[in-house]
Design brief:
The complex is a heterodimer of chains A (135) and B (417). Chain A has six helices and three strands; from the N terminus they run H-E-E-E-H-H-H-H-H. Chain A is of the alpha+beta class. Chain A has a single domain, classed as Sufe protein. Chain: A, CATH 3.90.1010.10. In chain A, strand 1 and strand 2 form a beta hairpin. Chain A starts with 7 loop residues before the first helix and ends in a 10-residue tail after the last helix. In chain A, 33% of the residues are buried. The C terminus of chain A is likely disordered. Classes of the chains: A alpha+beta (135), B alpha/beta (417). Chains A and B meet through loops of A and helix 12 of B.
Chain lengths: 135, 417
């Protein structure tokens, strides 16, 4: 884990993001912002057979929030919803490979928070109260 | 004033020795370059020592205890109130209400005056550069009373467009709420001209002095205004203490804001009579030590003198302007240097303000990044956030240079040429 917040990993994702843009027919869309910073992120997922086939994001904000969204999109493509349910905040912070202060964790976890909200929404849509979410 | 003459009357090195925090190294070992004075100012030891003196020698509640400590603390508090009166040129000491800060002061007026005097269709005149504290309370009371919000348009360079004042100021305008100094644009607003026109229309004028009072734009009688709100902590005093100035006639007409102890004359089971000014608006226990500390802060800044402070801060602002404008991709928001106080907010192409603030912090330079509680203004500016450097009289020209060098460092980290 790097102490250098703006290492190549973060800056590369910030400058050349993975899947920044929009899907034609997303299964689910959700956006949120970090009112403290004004970071804003919108995620769009295409889900097929309980698996993320494509993940795209758009938004604006600091390098951390935007790079984190890009890193997350690359991470979750191909994953099952079951795997995403198990994906925790710590896993997300590990993926960033940098050490964030408490205030900047809000930036680093914004897209993760949006993803989690999407998973809940998808579960609710399915009326999934059968305990299969690992509760 | 020439550079040489100024340096001789204004000894910034000596002044900095009064502020213990300024020569304490940061956790990363670097010296602190504190340029976030618009958020809160640092405290001279004269203020810190006054707080200690109060707690160690005469801590008691005010206006209550019939004992030596109670007498002493009440005397100290009322002396502080008198210092505030002198500072802002108010006619009467009863017109000085102690509050928790600017936000509470404005809420007090919006509530206690607005609820009683605003009628459906009445207008409140605001503008987009106001801090949320001088916007949201008016939205709420307007909504409750069926009043209408109107806005003085801004010029392209971030000043109030006074050529439009006659259009937005109408016979239904009941109050103009305006900041003395924008906390983002740095614009010094022409309160005199606004107040004269507003009063001619029968409207009251409230000035948000949170940013302007610490820089000496303070007199409530020149130009004449009706309400002035400001905070102690931006004036080198403690947090938790603020002031509302209001004209006696208005304060007497208004109903109480908060109710409870100290603000009553006579309480019966079903109804109560209220105390005279200023107690009527000072329910509960005041932030006593903080108010006394504010008195010490006022003594301190007046000891330096607002003229000397203004001259030094002008030098800092001019140097910041000159050097910042040479940085590629950097854009300062707001008017030219002659029409602003010592606040400079900017954007740098390719570096988001939060990343900028983080990288400046690594160089020991403390600034603020974000929307600075002015979301409508940032919408008007068409940016989500800015980085703000705000200078105080203890800042040095070398610290302005440190800011600019740190910005260049941030650009380098972001691989900008």
């Amino acid at each position: 884990m790097s102490d250098d917040l703006y290492d190549d990993h973060i800056l590369d994702h910030y400058e050349s993001p993975y899947h920044r843009g929009h899907l034609d027919m997303p299964t689910i869309v959700h956006e949120d912002e970090n009112p403290l910073c004004g970071d804003q992120v919108r995620l769009e997922l295409l889900i097929e057979n309980d698996r993320v086939r494509e993940a795209w994001f758009d938004g604006h904000g600091c390098a951390i929030s935007q790079a984190a969204a890009s890193i997350l999109m690359k991470e979750i493509e191909g994953k099952t919803l079951e795997e995403l349910r198990a994906f925790q905040a710590k896993d997300m912070l590990d993926k960033l490979k940098i050490r964030l202060t408490a205030s900047r964790q809000k930036c680093g976890l914004l897209s993760f928070k949006i993803l989690k909200t999407m998973i809940y929404t998808l579960d609710e849509r399915k009326g999934q109260g059968d305990g299969s979410d690992g509760a | 004033m020439s550079h040489v003459a100024l340096e001789s009357v204004f000894d910034v090195t000596a002044i900095r020795r009064d502020f213990p925090i300024l020569d304490k190294p940061l956790p990363n070992g670097l010296p602190l370059v504190y340029l976030d004075n618009g958020a809160t100012a640092q405290k001279p030891r004269q203020v810190i020592e006054k707080l200690v003196e109060c707690y160690e020698n005469y801590n008691a509640n005010v206006h209550r205890g019939i004992h030596a400590l109670g007498d002493r603390v009440t005397t100290e508090l009322e002396e502080a109130r008198e210092k505030v009166r002198t500072l802002i040129g108010a006619d009467e000491v009863e017109e000085i209400i102690f509050t928790s800060g600017t936000t509470m002061s404005i809420n007090l007026v919006a509530d206690a005056w607005g609820r009683k005097f605003l009628q459906p269709g009445d207008e409140l005149l605001l503008n987009e550069m106001e801090h949320h504290a001088n916007l949201v309370p008016w939205q709420q009371i307007a909504h409750e009373r069926g009043a209408v919000l109107r806005f003085i348009p801004l010029t392209a360079d971030g000043r109030l467009d006074l050529s439009a004042l006659d259009d937005v100021l109408t016979d239904r305008t009941k109050l103009v709420a305006v900041t003395g100094l924008s906390n983002v644009l740095g614009t010094i607003n022409p309160i005199g001209e606004i107040a004269a026109k507003a009063h001619a229309r029968g409207s009251l004028v409230l000035v948000d002095g949170a940013q302007s009072v610490p820089h000496g734009y303070v007199d409530v009688n020149c130009p004449q205004i009706d309400f002035l709100a400001f905070s102690g902590h931006k004036l080198y005093g403690p947090t938790g203490i603020g002031v509302l100035y209001g004209r006696r006639r208005l304060l007497e007409q208004m109903d109480p804001f908060l109710c409870g102890g100290n603000m009553i004359r006579r309480v019966r089971k079903e109804s109560s009579d209220f105390a005279d000014l200023p107690s009527k608006f000072e329910a509960g226990t005041l932030p006593v030590a903080q108010a006394i500390g504010l008195g010490a802060a006022i003594d301190y800044v007046q000891g330096i003198g607002f003229d000397a402070i203004a001259a030094h801060e002008r030098q800092l602002t001019e140097r910041a302007f000159r050097q910042l404008n040479e940085i590629p991709g950097l854009k300062i928001v707001g008017p030219g240097v002659s029409e602003r106080g010592s606040i400079v907010s900017f954007t740098v192409e390719g570096v988001h303000p939060h990343d900028m603030a983080e990288l400046l912090d690594r160089r020991g330079v403390a600034v603020r990044a974000g929307h600075h509680c002015t979301m409508p203004l940032h919408e008007w500016l068409q940016v989500t956030a800015t980085t703000r450097a705000s200078f105080a009289f203890y800042n040095t020209l070398a610290e302005v240079d440190a800011l600019c060098e740190a910005i260049q460092y941030a650009r380098k980290v972001f691989r900008l040429k």
